[in-house]
Design goal:
Alkaline Phosphatase, subunit A, 2 domains, six-stranded mixed beta sheet, 16 strands, four-stranded antiparallel beta sheet
C-alpha cells in the first residue's frame, strides 16, 4: 500500500489537542507530534456536502455543481421550486481513485460521502449508503457486508434518547473500521490507495459537545482502531504514507439562525404553510414524542418499516420545524425575492442592485438579541468565491460567525 487516508468528519484541534494533553488518543497524538500537523481551510459552504468531494476531486463547489445535500431547480415558468437529494451521479468531476484506475493502480474506498450509488473503479468501493440500500463495487462484496453486519444506522426517532443514540453510533463507527481491517488483511498487498471515512464522529460532537467525557470515549475508540489499521498497513509496507484529514472543524453552538423564517418575516420569501405537518403537530405529535410512544410498546421496528422516508421528513421535530427541501415545493416564486437553498446559500429572484446591497447589509449587521454578537461573519457574492459561476450557482453565500448554525428547517 502506498497511501492511506482516514477521513474524520468534523475533527477539530479544539478536541484533539486537549485529549492529547490528557494522555488520551495516543496514536493520533503520536501522528500529530511526529508527522505534519496543520489546520486546513475548507470550502464554502463548509458542510460535509460538498466538502468531501472537493477533497477527492480537487475542485471547488462551482466546478462540481453541488453546494448542499440537495440541489435546487428554479422553474419560473411554472412558479415552483424542485429539489433533488444529491447522489454520486450529480458530481461530474473525476476523483482520486478514477485517476489511479486509469493508471492501473488499485483503490479501496469505504464510506466516502456522496458515493451512492457506487461507481466502478479498479478495486473496491463501499458507498456511504445515504440513499437507498447497500451500494458497492464489485456487487459480490455485498455478502461480506451482510456477514460483518455493516449497516446504515437508522437514527430516526432516537436522537432524543442519548444513551441509545450513542450505542448505535459506536456500533456504526466500529463497523466501518472492521470492514477496512477486513479488506486490508485480505488483500492489502494489492491495494495502492485506501480511503476510509468515519462520518458519525461529527454527529457525536453535535449531540454531546457539552459532555466532553462522551466525546473522549468516542475519540479513544477511533484512536484504538486507527492503531490497529496502522499496524496492519505497516505489516505490509512500512513506507505507506498516512493522512488523517477532515472536511470541516467543530465548535460549541452559540445559537441557531432560522434563515428562511427571517426571510419570510422580512417579506423576501413567500411560502404556503403545510397543513398536514401543522395538523400532526397540533395533535401533539413530533419525532421526540413518537419515539417515546412507540419505544414504550416495542413498536419502533414496525414504525420504521411502515412509514416511508419521504413521509417521515414531513413529521415536525419538537420545535415544530420541517427540513427546508420539504418546504421548497410550497415557495411562491412570484411573491418571493430570494430563495434559501439550505446551508446558507441564497438564490436571488430579485436582481436589483440596491436590493442585493440591502440584503447583504442587513444580514451582516444582524446581531444576537441577547448577547449582541454578530451572527454573520460575511456574506459573499458568488464571483468572490467561485471560478465557474453559472445559473445553478447560488448568488449569495452566508458565512456565519463561529458557533452560529444556519438552520435547514422552516416552521410549518
Amino acid at each position: 500500500m502506498r497511501v492511506a487516508v482516514i477521513g474524520l468528519d468534523g475533527a477539530t484541534f479544539r478536541v484533539l489537542d486537549p485529549l492529547a494533553k490528557r494522555g488520551e488518543i495516543p496514536t493520533i497524538a503520536k501522528l500529530m507530534k511526529e508527522g505534519s500537523k496543520g489546520q486546513l481551510e475548507t470550502c464554502l459552504p463548509h458542510y460535509t456536502t460538498p466538502a468531501w468531494k472537493c477533497y477527492s476531486t480537487g475542485k471547488d463547489p462551482s466546478k462540481l455543481g453541488v453546494y448542499n445535500f440537495y440541489k435546487i431547480y428554479i422553474d419560473k415558468n411554472n412558479n415552483r421550486i424542485n429539489t433533488k437529494l444529491v447522489n454520486s451521479t450529480d458530481f461530474k468531476a473525476k476523483e482520486i481513485w478514477d485517476y489511479l484506475s486509469e493508471n492501473g493502480l488499485r483503490s479501496c474506498v469505504i464510506n466516502m460521502h456522496d458515493t451512492t450509488p457506487a461507481k466502478k473503479i479498479n478495486g473496491i468501493m463501499v458507498s456511504d449508503h445515504i440513499l437507498g440500500d447497500y451500494y458497492c463495487h464489485p456487487p459480490e462484496i455485498n455478502e461480506i457486508l451482510e456477514r460483518l453486519n455493516y449497516k446504515d444506522p437508522d437514527l430516526w426517532l432516537v436522537v432524543d434518547d442519548k444513551e441509545k443514540y450513542a450505542e448505535i453510533l459506536k456500533k456504526t463507527i466500529q463497523s466501518r473500521f472492521d470492514l477496512a481491517k477486513y479488506f486490508i488483511e485480505r488483500e492489502g498487498k494489492n491495494i495502492d490507495f485506501l480511503h476510509l471515512t468515519i462520518f458519525h464522529i461529527d454527529s457525536v460532537q453535535h449531540s454531546f459537545w457539552n459532555d466532553f467525557d462522551v466525546i473522549a470515549e468516542f475519540w479513544n475508540l477511533i484512536d484504538e482502531n486507527i492503531k490497529e489499521i496502522l499496524d496492519l498497513i505497516r505489516g505490509i509496507d512500512e513506507d505507506t504514507i498516512v493522512f488523517l484529514i477532515s472536511d470541516h472543524g467543530h465548535v460549541k453552538k452559540e445559537g441557531e439562525f432560522y434563515l428562511s423564517e427571517y426571510l419570510i418575516q422580512r417579506g423576501y420569501l413567500n411560502i404556503k404553510r403545510d397543513y398536514v405537518s401543522k395538523f400532526v403537530y397540533a395533535l401533539g405529535l413530533d419525532t421526540s414524542r413518537l419515539y417515546n410512544i412507540f419505544s414504550k410498546f416495542g413498536l419502533l421496528p414496525l414504525l420504521r418499516k411502515s412509514v416511508p422516508k419521504n413521509l417521515r421528513r414531513r413529521i415536525p421535530n419538537k420545535e415544530g420545524d420541517v427540513p427546508a427541501d420539504i418546504v421548497a415545493s410550497r415557495i411562491n416564486l412570484k411573491k418571493s425575492k430570494v430563495i434559501h437553498g439550505g446551508s446558507g446559500i441564497l438564490y436571488l429572484i430579485e436582481k436589483d442592485k440596491k436590493f442585493i446591497e440591502r440584503i447583504i447589509r442587513e444580514l451582516e449587521e444582524l446581531k444576537h438579541p441577547i448577547t449582541k454578537e454578530k451572527v454573520i461573519k460575511r456574506v459573499y457574492r458568488k464571483e468572490e468565491l467561485y471560478s465557474n459561476c453559472g445559473e445553478e450557482t447560488p448568488d449569495l453565500i452566508i458565512y456565519p460567525n463561529d458557533g452560529y448554525v444556519i438552520s435547514e428547517h422552516v416552521g410549518m
